[in-house]
Automatic annotation (TrEMBL):
Gene giving rise to this polypeptide: Cldn20
A Gene Ontology cellular-component term: bicellular tight junction
Entry protein name: Claudin
Organism: Mionectes macconnelli (McConnell's flycatcher)
Membrane topology (UniProt): Multi-pass membrane protein
Keywords: Cell junction, Cell membrane, Membrane, Signal, Tight junction, Transmembrane, Transmembrane helix
The family this protein is said to belong to: Belongs to the claudin family.
Presence of the UniProt keyword Protein biosynthesis in the record: no
Compartments (UniProt record): Cell junction, Tight junction; Cell membrane
PROSITE patterns: CLAUDIN
Length: 219
């Protein structure tokens, strides 16, 4: 029962991780630059994401421009696109597989099949967490290096946006969920190896007859 509750908790974490992963992939605020200027009325907030760049004006206007050309983008943005999409796909596969392998569901067949499915789902979550952690770390490193570069003007410097933090948290949720699923299956198999099932030996009919015969000789 405790293992089933732990798996359910890991499944909830994985759901949060999947939704956060998708949101981080689609949000346009991976980079944020607030340029107030000399007048607060003309203040603008520039946001750059993996798929579009958006500008929000203090007057309430909001405009976005899609990034159509892939080859013109920097390498870290291209890598972030690929790995974040891969993370979303792997986490979705993990949700489907662990739904079959969890103990609280009636799918997946016997206990061994459910254990293997749970382990495979945990591996998918771990890979998805790694794929989500790599682009966010790389993206953050590029933002910090550009921010500390003295040759870049202040108007071109950015800070990490909410999508980066969402990606970090989602990757952590997926990693924790994957480790819990893999550990629960491993503990079960290890327990079976350490404590093998006891074999009960029942005396055969011939032994019982011989024992009865010997007792009769003494009577």
């Amino acid at each position: 029962m405790a293992s089933a509750s732990l798996q359910f908790f890991a499944f909830i974490l994985a759901l949060f991780g999947v939704f956060g992963d998708i949101a981080a992939t689609l949000l346009p605020n991976w980079k944020v630059n607030a340029d107030v200027g000399s007048n607060i009325i003309t203040a603008i907030t520039q946001m750059q994401g993996l798929w579009m760049d958006c500008t929000w004006y203090s007057t309430g206007m909001f405009s976005c421009t899609l990034k159509y050309s892939i080859l013109s983008l920097p390498v870290y943005i291209q890598a972030a696109r690929t790995t974040m999409v891969l993370s979303c796909i792997l986490s979705a596969f993990g949700i489907c597989i662990t739904t079959v392998g969890m103990k609280c569901t009636k799918l997946g067949g016997d206990s061994d099949s459910k254990s293997h499915a749970c382990f495979a789902g945990g591996i998918c979550f771990i890979l998805a967490g790694i794929c989500g952690l790599v682009p966010t770390s790389w993206y953050t490193r590029e933002i910090i290096s550009n921010f500390l570069d003295q040759t870049i003007p202040e108007s071109s410097k950015h800070e990490p946006g909410g999508a980066v933090y969402t990606g970090f948290i989602s990757a952590g949720f997926l990693l924790i969920a994957g480790v819990i699923f893999c550990t629960s299956c491993f503990n079960k198999q290890q327990g079976g190896w350490i404590y093998p099932p006891k074999q009960h030996h029942f005396p055969s009919a011939e032994q019982e007859s011989n024992a009865g015969y010997n007792l009769k000789d003494y009577v």
